[in-house]
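Can't paste images in this forum, so I'm doing it all in text. The chain is below; anyone willing to post the predicted structure tokens underneath?
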Amino acid sequence: MTIVSDTRTAGFLERAESVQYLCNVAGSISSRLATLAVLILLPAQLGLHDYGLFALVITLGEIIEMTSSNWFRLLLVRQSIQERAADHALPTDATGWRPSFAAIAIGVSILGVLAAAIVSPLMADTHSFDLSVAVSIYVVNFAVLRLVLTLLQAENRQGLAGIVECIRGVVMLILVFGLIFAGWKSFYFAAIGFSLASGLAALISAPVLLGGTDRLLGRRLAAGSFTAIAVPTIIVTALTFQFGWMDRLILQTWLGPSMVGLYVAATAVARQPVDLVLFALNQQAFPVMLSHSSSESHTADRQIAGILIASCILGFGAAGACIALAQPIVDCILPKFDRTIAVALIGPIAIGAVALGIKHVVFDNIFHTHGKNWQLLGYLSIVSIGTLLLSIEMVKRFGPFGASVSFMIGSVLAVIVSARVSRSLWRFAFPADALLRILICAIVAGATTEFSLHWLSSQNPWLLLIGGGSIYALSYFIGLVLLMRFNIRRFMSSPWEHDILARQHA
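Text version of the structure:
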């Protein structure tokens, strides 16, 4: 019986890994839809003030955890893939700082908890002790989850990472709403349930990693990697939070938790569709780019151009849908908030999300694959500081709408500068014609949807959303097939392979 069970499990895992991008998309959809459900349903349960504090926990926890830990996860994936490609361990610096990745993981988690205890009491109009505890729990649990996902990525098992995310989405809904319906209606318990879901999902998936964890986490830092890659990555991660995150803290300072709640809810609606598809793509794209980091072959250039095209197909499509369907989306999903303000936020946030996602998936990864993180820091620091100053002024003048516009402007400038600077490292043939075609597809689909919504007589916002969404999806898909020779089966297995590129390189 055990042999049969093991065989079935192995067969399931093999099937999952054969459609890795599809599993990644499924995982992203599951976890992000669960997050979206939490963000849009909690206001009615907690009240706008407590909901704003819940959003503040997520904001502080994300900033602290990513800044303290993202650098070593990047190094773990990078070093694992490069060692596998070279078929031997990279040299380590016998005289330098070279702890194991396991020691680093524990150390940065402790530092994150200390940072939460220091930063949380600085927030105005909050319960400082409860906020500190909630943020600390967030930091620890998400550190564990992201470490598991990183280990799977390092082993090129992104399909299983998607399954972990599916588990997290289900557990999140059970814990958060289980605590709410049990009578614990406060931001504190909602945040704890939200965070614990990540840790539990990681623990459930732990048996899959047995046997490989010691080998991966036992690695020591490669020579010079901390100074060359880790330090600038820490600073870059902190600076990146100027885009769409620090404005929440600015809103908290000027307008209080309730307005933070409105902005976070609108941001979730506008960014989640974009982020979920681009995150899944990045899980596969980054290892592909790393495998070609020392190559200037025709195949390498074609694949990175394909990654850019895939990013735009996914990003433009998702953002176009959010913009075209902004009114019914807000009517259906954000009825507790000021709908006029919420609708106005959707467009700028969706555009900024696409720009930021493409910057991260394509151009920032060029710096990471070539180990030129200090060069990445140089351009990002200027754009980031400028965005922070713009955000402060725009929030003071225009409130949450000012925050969304400053996010959009900063993100667009960041992707333009990143694309320009990265050309000195990897001068692949820029697929301008293909990107223009994708943009045309998104615009036509959006215009068709807008026109169709005026003809739909139903006053039910859900029917408008479903009908408009179906029209948009069909219009966009037809446009891609006609202008891009889009093949959905090929896209699901290798998103960076496109017939249009074959014609361009023929």
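Residues 1-13, 501-506 have pLDDT under 50 and may be disordered. The chain has 20 helices and no strands.
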